[in-house]
Every structure is written in structure tokens, then in C-alpha cells.
UniProtKB/TrEMBL annotation:
Protein name, as recorded: RSE1/DDB1/CPSF1 C-terminal domain-containing protein
Example of a GO MF term: nucleic acid binding
GO CC, alphabetical: nucleus
Organism annotation: Cymbomonas tetramitiformis
UniProt domain RSE1/DDB1/CPSF1 C-terminal: residue ranges: 247-584
Listed InterPro entries: RSE1/DDB1/CFT1, RSE1/DDB1/CPSF1_C, WD40/YVTN_repeat-like_dom_sf
């Protein structure tokens, strides 16, 4: 099939763009355009032109889908008399075109359009219209989808599900779609310090603080330094209108985003961490499991008063309001303040195999819940201060504020309580200021993901072969500079790749957030796809025009803070997905074929790998799963 693309004026029928010839995805569209000899023969199978009245979308947009599944987006340029006021009225450029289209950056490649293994169309919402590849809340195949607008369903959608049912829906009115990820702002009128999701109650636990009337602090008798610290805190509150920052635990419903229950903390107590845990009575496998919410706090009285900590165990219960509305509320079951030898702030909490693991000052303490209180059964001495801790099965990964990471394993003797202990498997002997840690799982391979204060991502692995330290030293496999500090990792299972069956075992990726307000994802890749995309990334670094002429590969190299001791440079075994997307968004199709030949592969194979990568990293695959 062959043809030409013409754009005509509806009033007079005059040709604005004529005889465009082969659709090769040029950066700027004008006439006449003809394909060069040897270019691949692609066809336009679908086309649409729209204009929107709001924002910067008033200029007409031209959307095209090619026969290989590629989606191209174009936006009209300003007329020449507006773009260059020195020109006369009604002037045209040398090509004779009265209108020109410039190619748009659609961001993430759309997944499933034209793919032979997928029969599901994509519902597009914008701007940017390529941000979401399916509507949130729809978990079925969509044979047909169209827009629907009337008084009862304004600006909605009408779709037919796989069971031949007709459904009406509309996008949330308070949700903003102006970014790659849909976003809704929830005003809290307070400062949020931590957030956790409990699957059993389908609700969020938040640690919040807000200015409240000052309260008198509890001081032990005979502690002169604590008494002076309390007097100093009262004086500071008096200078600010007799108000101070008060911390509390809040239970937030994800439907209405209202506060269903709250637990205030003591005066001068600072909330540090919150974690949903599942504990077994007595720590035995046959014991009954109960879900709890564990909160770690600290009492910081000043440099003359040792910091104390407290752990709170809360259980969520169903309650009924006078209007017979079911909602969740919390009940404080256990509270313990750490003093004496185990005195210190509770900086990290994790549940492991029915046990509760706490980071208290310079110690890790493992506890058993006997139904009424916590009983200690194992401990481990940490270097300085634990900033992050995570677990998978009986393995624990902890990050220190200065001494990098330590990889532990919990072992227990089922016949004796004294047989329970935490054993160090390996550690990083270098120095690093760790901010967040998480595990990366790829089938039978377990990797350790770490972020530091310099904005780097590190991936470590336990390898004894060729390691001068044996199996006690963690080997750094890759490093990547983000440009911003990472505050939290969340481990998730990515979406399946269409109808194809993935490799045996469990593969998981890590979603993270940064101090700059960005969201990102780290995911393992198959070795063959990684090598192919790595070569493509090197070719794109030389073929594309970059911001300020800076090399993107050099920018992503590991950096260190000025006061940090030098570390051995890590291999560059992490790919930059933002750079790889530019292969689709910034290159014309003939140039895509040329770059693919330079990389020793084909464009079809690269597009297949990028679409598989887009499935793994797509926003819809991240938000549909419950959080741990």
C-alpha cells in the first residue's frame, strides 16, 4: 500500500502540507518530502489530528501510528510572521509550506500497540498523552474504548469488557495528568515524616508533626541534666507563643484520605520509623500470626542528656460509628522505653520470620512476642547508627550512617531458645554514608541495592571467587549517579511481558523516591537484552545532541562527597532509561535503522527490548500492586 499525506484547509480546501511521501518520522515536517533510497517501507495505519483549548495544547496536534507499532506525535509551529516578526504578512519559507509540524517528545513508549503478542488496545490520557498505558481501576481486557460525555458522566469513557459488558467510567476529577505519572495532592496541614501501608487494613500509617500547645515533659527524679533540658525546652516554647512541634501516628483511609484515628506521642518524643509487621506468638512456626504496627521513637534532650528510645506495638480494630459506618481504629497493646545498656533511639524496624528486629542505638535486638510483652532472644553490635534496614526471608540488610552496609543472616535452633543468633554473612569494608537499602531479586540471584548521601545508587553482591577477602566482603557490581538523594526503596514485582512466560523464579524491581521529588525504578534485565541496550546507549551518547553538550554517560558516573575517603570506581553496569527512550523520541526512523546497524543489531529487536523495558517500568504496573 502506498500513498501521500496532505493537510488541507477546511474552509477553502487549500493544501497546507502536500505530498509528504514516506512516513519516516522526521523532526520537522514540511513539503515536499520524499524517502531516500533504501529506507524501510513503513505505512501509516492510523492517524488523528486534535486541538485542545487549555494550556499549551491550542495548536493542532498530529498523531500517527505506523505499521510496526511506532507512534509519532507532531505539533504545529507558530506561523513565520509570529515566529520572525521581521517577515512580511503571509510569508512562507523556501519549501512553500504554509504550516509546519515539529515532532513531539511523547516520553515513554506506548506498550501493546501493534505488538503481535498483545490484543489489548491502549487508553490514552494526556497531556502528555503517552504517560499512561491503561486506565487505573480497569483490570480487564478492553476490546473497545471510546469517549462518552453527557450530564451524568461528563468527559467520561465508554468501554466493552472481556465479558461483553458495557461499562461507563471517568477519570478522577481531582487527579492531575500533566506529568508522566498521574498525581493528586492531599493537603495534610502538617509535616509528614514517614509513611507505611498495611495490607490487612488497606490503610496508610503516617508519622506526622504539627505545632501544638506546649506540654510539660516527663523527667525522672534525680536526673539534673534532664531537668535542665526540660526547662530549656519550655523556654524555647515560650518564645514561640507557647507552642512546640508535637508528633503523632495517624491512620489514613485511602478512599477519602481522611484521618480515622490518631495516637499522640509524649511531649518531646520524636517519631523516627513506622512499619507494619506480622508477629507469631512465641516465635514458633505453629504459633498464631497477628498483624501489628510497630513505631520507633526517640527522646532527644540535648548534648548533656543521653538519647532514649521507645517502641510501640499497635493493633488495628474494626469500629462502627453511630451512622453504622465501618472504619478502622488503633489500640496500643505494648509500649517499652529502652534504658540502661540498651538505651538509644529506635531508628529502624523490620519484621522477620515472625520476629521483631529493632535497631536501638548501636545494637540490633531481636524480640519474640509472647502475647503480652516482647522478649529478647538475639542481638548484634552495629558500628555507629543504623539509617535503613530491610529483610527477605531470614536475611537482613542494614545501612550505617558512616560504615556502609552489613549483610546478616538469622539462624535458630528450634529445640533451644539460646540457639537463635544473628550471623554476619558479608559487609562492605569501605566507608559510605548510607541513606536507603533494599534487595533486588532475579530468579535465584540476590543483589543488594544501596543509596548514599552523594546521590549514587550502588549494587552489591556476595562473591567469594576471586575475592581476596573471601566471602566476607561484598563486591560492588555497579554504580549510578542520580543527581539527587534517595529517601526510600520499595520492592515490587513488575508486570508480566504480555503473554510470554518469563524465566522461572521470582523477579522483583525497586521503586524509589528522591529528595528532589522524582520517582524512579531499578529493575534487573536479561543478560542478552542488557548487552544489546548497553551498546545502543554508547552509540546514542555520540549520535544525539545533549543538554549543554554534556556527555550523559560521564554524568552518571559515581561521585563522592569532598570529605569522604576515596572508593574504587565501580563498573558502569546500569543503563539510563531516559537516554534509551530518546532512541524512539528524538531520532528519525532512517537514523534509528542506522544506529541499530552500528550497534550490531536490528531496529525491530531494539524496539522489542524497549517495549519489554517499558512494561517493567510503566506506571500502571507499579500502582496496581499492594505495598509490603
Amino acid at each position: 500500500m502506498a500513498g501521500h499525506l496532505d493537510v488541507r484547509d477546511m474552509a477553502g480546501g487549500d493544501a497546507l502540507l502536500k505530498d509528504l511521501g514516506q512516513p519516516c518520522g522526521p523532526t520537522v515536517v514540511f513539503h515536499p518530502m520524499y524517502p531516500e533510497p533504501g529506507d524501510p517501507q513503513l505505512e501509516v495505519v492510523d492517524m488523528r489530528m486534535d486541538a485542545f483549548s487549555r494550556g499549551g495544547m491550542s495548536r493542532p496536534m498530529l498523531l500517527m501510528r505506523l505499521s510496526d507499532g511506532t507512534v509519532l506525535g507532531y505539533r504545529t509551529l507558530a506561523p513565520l510572521e509570529e515566529a520572525q516578526p521581521g517577515f512580511g504578512e503571509g510569508c512562507v519559507d523556501r519549501t512553500g509550506a504554509r504550516v509546519r509540524f515539529v515532532r513531539m517528545d511523547i516520553g515513554w513508549p506506548l506498550v501493546g500497540i501493534g505488538a503481535p503478542e498483545s490484543q489489548r488496545p491502549a487508553g490514552v490520557a494526556g497531556p502528555p498523552w503517552g504517560g499512561m498505558t491503561r486506565l487505573d481501576g480497569i483490570r480487564k481486557d478492553l476490546p473497545s474504548l471510546t469517549q462518552f460525555h453527557n450530564l451524568n458522566c461528563p468527559h467520561g469513557f465508554l468501554y466493552v469488557a472481556g465479558n461483553a459488558s458495557l461499562n461507563f467510567c471517568q477519570l478522577p476529577t481531582r487527579t492531575s495528568f500533566t506529568s508522566v505519572w498521574p498525581m493528586r495532592r492531599i493537603p495534610t496541614k502538617c509535616t509528614l515524616h514517614a509513611l507505611a501501608y498495611q495490607a490487612e487494613t488497606a490503610s496508610y500509617m503516617t508519622l506526622a508533626s504539627a505545632p501544638q500547645p506546649a506540654r510539660k515533659r516527663r523527667v525522672e527524679e534525680g536526673d539534673q541534666h534532664a531537668s535542665m533540658a526540660s526547662i530549656a525546652a519550655a523556654s524555647a516554647a515560650a518564645t514561640s507563643g507557647d507552642r512546640e512541634e508535637a508528633h503523632e501516628l495517624r491512620l489514613v483511609s485511602p478512599g477519602s484520605w481522611g484521618i480515622e484515628w490518631r495516637q499522640p506521642l509524649e511531649p518531646g518524643e520524636v517519631a523516627l520509623c513506622v512499619r507494619p509487621v506480622v508477629l507469631r506468638v512465641g516465635g514458633l512456626a505453629s504459633g498464631a500470626s497477628r498483624p501489628f504496627v510497630a513505631v520507633g521513637t526517640a527522646f532527644a534532650g540535648g548534648e548533656d542528656v543521653p538519647t532514649r528510645g521507645r517502641v510501640l506495638l499497635l493493633e488495628m480494630q474494626h469500629t462502627s460509628t453511630p451512622e453504622e459506618v465501618q472504619q478502622w481504629s488503633g489500640q496500643l497493646l505494648y509500649s517499652h522505653e529502652f534504658k540502661g545498656q540498651t538505651r538509644g533511639p529506635v531508628t529502624a524496624i523490620v519484621g522477620m520470620e515472625g520476629y521483631l528486629l529493632l535497631a536501638i542505638g548501636t545494637k540490633l535486638m531481636l524480640y519474640i512476642w509472647n502475647g503480652k510483652t516482647l522478649e529478647g532472644c538475639a542481638f548484634f553490635d552495629v558500628p555507629l547508627y543504623v539509617t535503613s534496614m530491610c529483610s527477605v526471608k531470614n536475611f537482613v540488610l542494614l545501612g550505617d550512617v558512616y560504615k556502609s552496609i552489613i549483610f546478616l543472616q538469622f539462624k535458630e535452633d528450634k529445640d533451644a531458645l539460646a540457639g537463635k543468633h544473628l550471623q554476619q554473612v558479608a559487609k562492605d569494608f569501605g566507608q559510605m554514608a548510607v541513606m536507603a537499602t533494599e534487595f533486588l531479586i532475579e530468579s535465584a540471584t540476590l543483589s543488594l541495592l544501596v543509596s548514599d548521601h552523594a546521590g549514587n545508587l550502588h549494587i552489591f553482591a556476595v562473591e567469594s571467587y576471586g575475592n581476596p577477602w573471601g566471602s566476607q566482603n561484598l563486591v560492588e557490581r555497579a554504580a549510578f549517579q542520580l543527581g539527587s538523594k534517595v529517601s526510600k526503596f520499595i520492592r515490587r514485582r513488575p508486570a508480566p511481558l504480555g503473554e510470554k512466560k518469563g524465566p522461572k523464579g521470582r523477579n522483583e524491581c525497586a521503586l524509589f523516591g528522591t529528595f528532589g521529588g522524582a520517582l524512579g525504578c531499578v529493575s534487573p534485565l536479561e543478560e542478552t537484552a542488557f548487552r544489546r541496550l548497553q551498546v545502543l546507549q554508547e552509540k546514542l551518547a555520540r549520535a544525539l545532541v545533549h543538554t549543554a553538550g554534556l556527555n550523559p554517560l560521564t554524568f552518571r558516573r559515581q561521585r563522592q562527597l569532598p570529605n569522604e575517603p576515596p572508593r574504587q570506581p565501580a563498573p558502569s553496569y546500569m543503563l539510563d532509561a531516559d537516554l534509551l527512550w530518546r532512541y524512539i523520541n528524538d531520532l528519525e526512523i532512517p537514523m534509528q535503522y542506522k544506529i541499530a546497524r552500528m550497534a550490531g543489531t536490528s531496529r525491530d529487536q531494539i524496539m522489542l527490548n524497549l517495549r519489554e523495558l517499558a512494561v517493567i517500568l510503566s506506571p500502571s504496573s507499579m500502582v496496581v500492586q499492594g505495598e509490603q
